[in-house]
Amino acid sequence: MEAARRILIVNADDFGQSPGVNRGVIVAHEQGIVTSASLMVRWPASVEAAAYGRANPRLSLGLHLDLAEWDYRDDAWLSLYEVVAVDDQKAVAAEVRRQIEAFRELVGKSPTHLDSHQHVHRREPVRSLMIEAARELRIPLRGVTPDVRFCGDFYGQTATGAPLPERISVEGLLGILAALPTGVTELACHPGEGGDLDTMYRAERANEVEALSDPRIRPALTAMGIELRSFDDAVVPPFPRGAFGDRVGARVCK
Predict the structure, then answer these.
(1) Which residues does residue 227 pair with via DSSP β-bridges, in sequence order?
(2) On the CB side of 237, how many CA atoms lie within 13 Å of its CA?
(3) Which of 87, 134, 151, 186 could form a disulfide with 250 if both were Cys (CB 3.0 to 4.6 A apart)?
(4) Quick check: 28 and 209 in contact, CB under 8 A?
(5) What confidence score (pLDDT) does residue 242 get?
């Protein structure tokens, strides 16, 4: 049974946000342990990212819903951009539908999973709308689908942007892997190359690529009995139609 095994999905967020992010995700997939990615469909680099996904189906692609981004500067959260007001249910519903359709046009099929930029779907009304979308598509929604535990510990900053380089080192990654429970776990990551983003999480992305691609990681997974899969080949039951619980097994980061 799947529940008695340790199955790991390593998902790269922000695919398509910039050429540098695309390069980092591709390297971490081809030379490392990234098995899935979440596509941001609003950015020009999403065309390149989607083309790579079409040509490389082993990298399963989900939708990284992009409604807004904030940055912590001078002891305060500042808005970098806002696509729609995240508390406007009607506007959010329309934008969710628009981004799903944009994903289908870019990739040629529906997403394999759903999540969101800076976890906006953890709050209402975005949460309920994303649950509805995941139910219709019959795919996992990060931190909500009971059969996929979410781990956000591989992240090189505190919630307010203070550096945590040990978290995204090889040693930090090995520690996270050693602590994985049985069942299916999604480990989020944010690989990237270059500094072509105006975001609080920039320099750390290259460190993530290095750790995710380190030649010691795959043998460690084998030694630990951890099976590396994508959202395409992990056996996850369809999104349930009953109650929805937050069985999130780890601290949530960006």
Answers:
(1) 7
(2) 9
(3) 151
(4) yes
(5) 52
In CATH, what is the architecture of 2-229? Answer: Alpha-Beta Barrel (3.20)
Determine the angle formed by the axes of helices 46-55 and 19-30, rounding to 10 degrees. 20
13 has catalytic annotation = yes
Token pair recorded at residue 62? 């989900």
pLDDT digit string, tens, across residues 81-111? 999 999 999 999 999 999 999 999 999 999 9
In percent, the amount of the chain with pLDDT more than 70 equals 93
Q: In this structure, how many other beta carbons lie within 10 angstroms of the beta carbon of residue 123?
A: 11
Q: What is the dihedral of CA 154, 217, 29, 42, to 10 degrees?
A: 0
Q: Which amino acid is at 232?
A: D
Could you give the CA distance from residue 230 to residue 209 in angstroms, rounded to a whole number? 18
Would the pLDDT of 244 be above 80? Answer: no
Name the active-site residue from 13, 14, 66, 115. Answer: 13
